[in-house]
Design brief:
Strand content: under 5%
Helix content: 55-70%
Shape: elongated
Order of helices and strands: HHHHH
Number of helices: 5
Length: 78
């Protein structure tokens, strides 16, 4: 059902969900610090709440999507 809805036509034309996500992505220094914590201190990262880790996962997915669509995700000015 989700695939059907995501491919639905709107009155003003089709939506490009990935491009919308790419345009909306903004660099978040707090999330970038969590990424560093995840790799440098995994034991500390494991004690962080599940909602923070889920937010980090969404952030990383959106960042990867933005990078795949040509955005410079490493620039701290984004």
């Amino acid at each position: 059902m989700s695939r059907i809805l995501s491919e639905a036509e709107f009155l003003d034309g089709p939506r490009n969900k990935n491009q919308i996500r790419t345009d909306a992505w903004k660099r978040d220094e707090q999330m970038e610090e969590l990424v560093k914590l995840e790799t440098s201190h995994p034991d500390t990262f494991d004690r962080i709440g599940i909602s923070v880790r889920m937010s980090l996962g969404y952030y990383q997915n959106d960042k990867a999507n933005a990078a795949a669509h040509g955005r410079d995700v490493n620039d701290e000015g984004n």
